[in-house]
Design brief:
147 residues; homotetramer; 3 helices; 6-stranded antiparallel sheet; alpha+beta; Thiol Ester Dehydrase, Chain A; 23% helix
Chain lengths: 147, 147, 147, 147
């Protein structure tokens, strides 16, 4: 199936987020108002106890929230994170992590999204290990930013 | 000067946070209730516009808050992030970034810290680009975690 | 139908929250892990533009989150808010407001809940005007607090 | 001493916040970028244990943050809360509470403020019982809101 203009735009922007590549994160599903990002567990993203660092989990959740909002914007808009808040519900232990970001409100200037982050182990039921609530700002094309 | 037991303990724990090494972050000052972490700007931590990704900034701020609280704990305690919230005040542009975490309240179970994150360019006045408010939980030694 | 022990306990505690009465808030549905609180719009809870003040909306959302978590606790436990974060999605205009709090994670010490707050006007579709993410702490009975 | 245009504007707007009157809150100091609001302890703002309800504390902190930002805006601007996050550091026990809101960043569209909330008892050292981090949005005069 052909990718939509929105999906192409989100994927191109994601590919420019070098941090995602550094962490090992991959863009999974891109839908209208919903974006999934996967992060394999690996030694280089750990904290002191061997779990994934809260910052790594927050990074993919922030990107998932941002791109969920960005999927609702116009072609020439850019987006910046205003703020986000994350609750860590359980240690980030698993084979991989999946952040699912969804738009709650898409506004002219301010958009709000939430994310759930799941730990995945084999065929086990995904376990929700963190939840995020994030505020994003649309930057109009004339500001010289892209994506 | 000899390092204090607290500083040694914080530095050993920081060295086990592989994510800090992956991002390029270095532990700078460790004081009682205050911890500084530095992150040089580099291509591999960027977002789509070439600024440092909010997740990279949040990662060093979370660690600075966590270690500020950890510096107030006992030798055998461990610490986990319960939640944090970060406001991004300006795009993360600069030669390096400095997160300064300070304990606001050190409790038996719950501790609260805040961090300011500055962008540094040459000898310019440091510019505050983000602020964090974070909640940490002390895990007693008997739980089998360390640091 | 007879009220459950949990519902009775939640209702007795709510009745001791004098602020709820001051605002005009009523406890609506109490289920296992989910609590609804209603607040009629009225002049005495407004902000400067005549909308309900964000603090009034936050108050019922905090109580809804707290009691959702409390519904999962033991008879002699007490509960305190550790922190909460609320996004205001639209001005709080309507005939009444409904905060629906749901437990996300119920832990031994720390519980996490989220709330959606809706504005109600006649038979219109409820409009989500705010979302909250909150952290609660269980206080064991021996600490001398009740409810 | 004559009140400044800013102080007059803040005070007029505060007087239209009926919730502040309902809670018993008074506007204290108004400076450029800093606003103090006092709330006497009283039975009608309590939660189930007799402490001031977190929602009452959040209400004065939100207003203190909002007016701190508003003090930096233009005469015809209005202001709305985008979101806020509050950590409750200790039970809100005392004779009165003082919320001190300060601007962290005053932007064209988005402003960020923080607040500390203190419990006051006689001549005792004020005790910090809560900290808030808040995001505010400037609404240009043409939107039909005032203050």
């Amino acid at each position: 199936m052909q990718k939509s203009e929105v999906e192409t735009r989100v994927r191109e922007s994601f590919d420019r987020q070098a941090l995602m590549n550094t962490l090992g994160a991959k863009l999974d599903i891109v839908k209208d108002g919903e974006v999934h990002i996967r992060l394999p567990a690996s030694e280089h993203i750990t904290q002191q106890h061997g779990f994934a660092h809260a910052g790594a989990i927050a990074s993919i959740a922030d990107s998932a929230c941002g791109y969920a909002c960005y999927s609702k914007m116009e072609k020439d808009d850019a987006i910046l994170s205003v703020e986000f808040k994350i609750n860590l519900l359980a240690p980030a232990a698993g084979e991989s992590f999946l952040a699912i970001g969804k738009v709650i409100r898409s506004g002219r200037t301010i958009s709000v999204a939430s994310a759930e982050i799941f730990a995945l182990v084999g065929n086990d039921e995904p376990k929700c290990i963190a939840v995020m609530q994030a505020t994003m700002m649309r930057i109009e094309s004339k500001q010289g930013l892209n994506g």
